[in-house]
Specification:
alpha+beta; 3-stranded mixed sheet; 10% strand
């Protein structure tokens, strides 16, 4: 890297940074969105006036399964220490999905980030190459690739549904987020 990513996040008022965003295996999060929706309805005071929740939840109130992999994430810890995140996490913990469904940190962090942050606070570190069996990201822009040692053909993120969705959708208002939370899950 040719820069300090922590300083970059601080200087640009970013809260959450990631390198790769695949879809989650549905069997591991079957009740996560319904549990999240209950928290949203019961705790509207914790929701910001605008958020990026539309990335994780589509217009039919279905969880898109998109999540930021936590293998590489840089987060302003004040986010995880906030009253909103703590309330959400305690709600999930009481629901038992961590134990009975294997809810992982990545989908929980991702839903929380998209629900409690605006898009402009979330950053894709496109210039950081990443490899995990089954998934890889190698920057394909020449100015970024010259700093990486990776195969430019390994560019999952440029073709992945979650990255396309990240580029296409924007923030929605709190009342719209709550409306999605009230919709029945349409599978």
């Amino acid at each position: 890297m040719t820069y300090d990513p922590f300083r970059y996040m601080r200087d640009n008022n970013l809260v959450y940074g990631y390198t790769i965003a695949p879809t989650e295996k549905e069997l591991t999060v079957e009740t996560l969105w319904n549990t999240t929706r209950r928290w949203m309805i019961e705790n509207p005071e914790h929701l910001p006036e605008k958020s990026f929740i539309h990335w994780a939840i589509n217009e039919k109130s279905k969880y898109t399964m998109c999540h930021f992999w936590s293998n590489f994430e840089i987060v302003d810890l004040s986010f995880y220490r906030s009253a909103a995140y703590e309330s959400y996490f305690q709600h999930l913990d009481r629901a038992g999905g961590f134990f009975y469904e294997r809810w992982g940190d990545a989908p929980v962090h991702s839903i929380a980030a998209s629900m409690l942050l605006r898009k402009e606070q979330i950053h894709w570190f496109e210039d950081v190459g990443y490899h995990h069996p089954g998934y890889a990201h190698c920057p394909n822009k020449p100015e970024m690739h010259r700093n990486c040692i990776c195969d430019k053909g390994q560019n999952f993120m440029y073709h992945g549904m979650c990255n396309r969705r990240f580029a296409e959708v924007g923030d929605i208002y709190k009342d719209q987020a709550l409306e999605l939370a009230h919709l029945p899950d349409r599978k």
